[in-house]
Design the sequence.
């Protein structure tokens, strides 16, 4: 299926969870925040939440700033 | 209470200086500068993860979470909606309710959009955030932010990154006089140590700065200068300065002077 991750289209296996997606892109789940279709996803829900076709996912983290 | 203690939303922080983590020449210099500043709270920004890079440096590696509290910001947001969205993401990434709220209204000056700022403050306070809004030196807006439940107000001394020092001391003084129940933290515009000392002498509860330290030729040295300036300014404020007088008052006694008689 096609998902939109940080503004770019990507292919992911049907039913991929948020946790599996983070693992596949090599990100530690404890250091990022995830939004799916505009809603923030709690960390506890990463394993159970299955992504769907055309879901828009934002993965953010902290960077230097004032 | 120690002079250095800053209390925000019932929590004590061991320094009145809050420092940003942007624009340092290297991560090592940043870490050493933050240490030298003595800051107990540091700001960070929230951005998309760059998916073309794997792993790499993470800003969270630069601090000891037991000694420094992270204050995520909503820098770069131009609407209340964007700022609220960013704050919600920051809370999930940092597992803390603290947010430095910025809603910018003008690209060239980075002056705040106070209407959007108030809207976002109201929403985020309702959601349980500890909101620290970056605002302009406007007493009426500061009062409204306080009444909306902000945990502090953070008026600017001068535009972000300008290093001009306090531009409107009279208006800043009005805010410091009126807003007594929550901290007033001067955020932005400090260029050197004396700028920081001046706002602390005026009675500010704290100062937040980034470029003033990160952009200095020697950021570590400037961080220490800022720490000392803030402590000095606070102590002078607490000590109570002498009134300004137009003419001299002798410091030595007049009586007992030798005379050629």
Sequence:
């Amino acid at each position: 299926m096609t998902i939109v991750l940080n503004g770019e289209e990507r292919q992911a296996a049907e039913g991929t969870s948020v946790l599996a997606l983070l693992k596949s892109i090599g990100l530690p789940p404890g250091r990022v925040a995830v939004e799916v279709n505009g809603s923030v996803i709690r960390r506890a829900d990463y394993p159970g939440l299955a992504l769907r076709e055309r879901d828009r996912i934002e993965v953010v983290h902290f960077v230097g700033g004032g | 209470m120690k002079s250095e203690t800053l209390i925000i939303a019932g929590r004590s922080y061991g320094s009145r200086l809050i420092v940003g983590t942007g624009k340092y020449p290297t991560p090592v210099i940043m870490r050493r500068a933050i240490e030298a500043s003595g800051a107990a709270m540091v700001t960070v920004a929230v951005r998309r993860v760059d998916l073309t890079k794997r792993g790499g440096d993470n800003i969270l590696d630069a601090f000891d979470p037991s000694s420094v509290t992270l204050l995520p910001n909503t820098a770069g947001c131009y609407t209340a909606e964007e700022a609220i969205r960013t704050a919600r993401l920051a809370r999930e990434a940092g597992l803390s309710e603290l947010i430095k709220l910025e809603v910018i209204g003008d690209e060239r000056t980075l002056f705040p959009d106070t209407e959007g700022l108030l809207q976002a403050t109201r929403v985020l306070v309702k959601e349980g955030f500890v909101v620290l809004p970056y605002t302009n030196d406007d007493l009426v807006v500061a009062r409204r932010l306080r009444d909306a439940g902000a945990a502090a107000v953070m008026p600017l001394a001068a535009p972000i990154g300008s290093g001009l020092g306090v531009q409107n001391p009279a208006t800043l003084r009005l805010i410091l006089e009126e807003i007594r129940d929550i901290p007033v933290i001067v955020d932005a515009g400090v260029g050197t140590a004396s700028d920081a000392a001046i706002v602390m002498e005026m009675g500010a509860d704290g100062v937040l700065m980034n470029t003033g330290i990160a952009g200095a030729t020697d950021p570590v040295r400037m961080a220490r200068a800022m720490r000392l300036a803030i402590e000095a300014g606070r102590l002078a404020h607490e000590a109570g300065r002498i009134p300004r007088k137009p003419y001299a008052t002798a410091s030595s006694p007049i009586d007992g002077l030798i005379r050629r008689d």
Notes: The two ends of chain A are 39 Å apart (CA to CA). The CA atoms of residues 1 and 14 of chain A lie 6 Å apart. Strands of chain A lie at 2-5, 8-11, 33-36, 39-41, 56-64. Chain A is about 10% helix and 35% strand.
